[in-house]
Design a protein that fits this description.
Layout lengths: L4 H13 L3 H10 L3 H6 L5 H19 L6 H10 L13 H15 L5 H21 L1
Bound molecules: protoporphyrin IX containing FE (HEM).
């Protein structure tokens, strides 16, 4: 049986407790495609790491079926839409999902197949939302 939303949130909490989780995710993401690395050339990393930390939390809450974060989700989706500040080619989202799954596998000491499936589902819901609505 797939893990629940609460279990995914718990897994995320464990990842954040060990230092370097978000940096590791970005390291994996940037080496997937030169287009991604190029997008982050001028980035302030301490700010970006904080923004994504919050962004993942919003995405997991949203994927869990809660609409209280809908506005925040829409803001993030807009940033990455064609007309946004950091437009993302939808084909690149698979890299985002794989890099995050890989980082979670490395950082959550209690990672297992059920968690992996539930994480994968939540991340897919997030990137589908970004590409379908904007
Ligand atoms: C391949 C996929 C993605 C790429 C290449 C990408 C790239 C970027 C870039 C270039 C920025 C701006 C950095 C800067 O200000 O220098 C950014 C900001 C951000 N991204 Fe992404 N992104 C991706 C997917 C996502 C996803 C799925 C989320 C959802 C959690 C997300 C959340 C954010 C947030 C919260 C910010 C900060 C927005 C702000 O400053 O207002 N990104 N992203």
């Amino acid at each position: 049986m797939a893990a629940t939303t609460e279990e995914v949130q718990g897994s995320y909490g464990r990842c954040l407790r060990s230092k370097g989780f978000i940096s590791r995710f970005y390291e994996l993401l940037l080496e997937k495609d030169p287009r991604v690395a190029k997008m982050f050339e001028g980035t302030n990393w301490s700010q970006q790491n904080k923004a994504l930390r919050r962004g993942i939390s919003i995405a997991l809450t949203f994927a869990g079926g809660s609409s209280i974060v809908e506005r925040s989700m829409n803001e993030m989706a807009l940033v990455h839409s064609r007309k946004g500040r950091a437009p993302v080619d939808p084909q690149l989202y698979v890299h985002w999902r794989e890099s995050l799954l890989q980082a979670v596998a490395e950082f959550d000491p209690r990672f297992n197949n059920e968690l992996r499936d539930a994480w994968a589902e939540a991340l897919k819901a997030t990137t589908d939302y970004f590409t379908k609505s904007f």
